[in-house]
Design brief:
234 residues, alpha/beta, Rossmann fold, 7-stranded parallel sheet, 7 strands, 43% helix, globular, Sc_DH/Rdtase_CS, Beta-ketoacyl-ACP reductase, oxidoreductase
C-alpha cells in the first residue's frame, strides 16, 4: 500500500537516499529542502524547518498533493562546529533549533493526522556523536542525544493510537557531512568501528524503511545503531 511519506532535509545525503528508497518501495514521498533545487522525481517543498509558518505551509502543500503524512522521517540538520570556549551561543542555539526543536515541530504537526488515522511512523535521524560526544561538537551532540528523549516520550504518548516513534543512530557514513573531517580524525573513528569501515547512506535507509514498515509494528522508543559497532552499547 502506498503511504504518504515526508523526509525533512531530503535533498541530499542520508535524507535523499531514504526518500528514494521509500519512493522505490511505492510510497508517495515528499521532501523538504531549504536551498538549492528539489530532487528529480520527488515532490519537493521548500521549507525552513525552523520557521513555524513555513512548516505549516509545507504540510498544507504536501497534504493537498499526497494526503496526510503517515510516515515522518525527521532528518534535517546542521553543524556549526567549534570548541566550547570559542562556540558562540547563537551557534549553539541554531543547531539545537534546527536539529531538535524543528524535529519536534514537524513531529507535532504530523501527529495530528496520525492520531486521526490511528496509525503512523515517526523516525528521527540522530548520530552516534549524540551518545559518545565529540570535541568541537557540543551543540551537535546535545541536539542528537535529545532526540532519544523526544522519541521515547512520543512513543508513550502516541503508542495507544498505533503510532511508533524510533531513532536511527548512524555512525561514520559517507556523506558530505564527514567531508571536512581530517584524515587523522577519520582514521581514529574507523579504528573505533568494529567493522573497520565507513557506512553508506543506503545502509541507513534500509533500517529507516524497516522502522517505517509493518515488520516493525512492535518496535517503538528504540535507538537503532547503524554504526558498524562504533559506540556500541551506548
Amino acid at each position: 500500500m502506498s503511504r504518504t511519506v515526508l523526509v525533512t532535509g531530503g535533498n541530499r545525503g542520508i535524507g535523499l537516499t531514504v526518500a528514494r528508497a521509500m519512493a522505490d518501495a511505492g510510497d508517495k514521498v515528499a521532501v523538504t529542502y531549504r536551498t538549492g533545487t528539489p530532487p528529480e522525481g520527488l515532490f519537493g517543498v521548500r521549507c525552513d524547518v525552523t520557521d513555524p509558518e513555513a512548516v505549516e505551509a509545507a504540510f498544507d502543500e504536501i497534504e493537498a498533493q499526497h494526503g496526510p503524512v503517515e510516515v515522518l522521517v525527521a532528518n534535517a540538520g546542521i553543524i556549526r562546529d567549534a570548541l566550547v570556549p570559542m562556540l558562540a551561543v547563537d551557534d549553539f542555539a541554531a543547531v539545537l533549533d534546527t536539529n531538535v526543536v524543528a524535529a519536534f515541530r514537524v513531529a507535532k504537526r504530523a501527529s495530528e493526522g496520525m492520531l486521526k488515522a490511528r496509525w503512523g511512523r515517526i523516525v528521527f535521524v540522530s548520530s552516534v556523536m549524540g551518545f559518545m560526544g565529540s570535541p568541537g561538537q557540543a551543540n551537535y551532540a546535545a541536539s542528537k542525544s535529545a532526540m532519544l528523549g523526544l522519541a521515547r516520550s512520543l512513543a508513550w504518548e502516541l503508542g495507544p493510537r498505533n503510532i511508533t516513534a524510533n531513532v536511527v543512530v548512524p555512525g561514520l557514513i559517507e556523506t558530505d557531512m564527514i567531508s571536512d573531517l581530517s584524515d587523522r580524525r577519520r582514521d581514529e573513528l574507523v579504528r573505533q568501528t568494529a567493522l573497520r569501515r565507513t557506512g553508506t547512506a543506503q545502509e541507513v535507509a534500509s533500517v529507516v524503511r524497516f522502522l517505517a514498515g509493518d515488520d516493525a509494528a512492535f518496535v517503538t522508543g528504540a535507538a537503532v545503531p547503524v554504526s558498524g559497532g562504533l559506540a556500541m552499547g551506548l
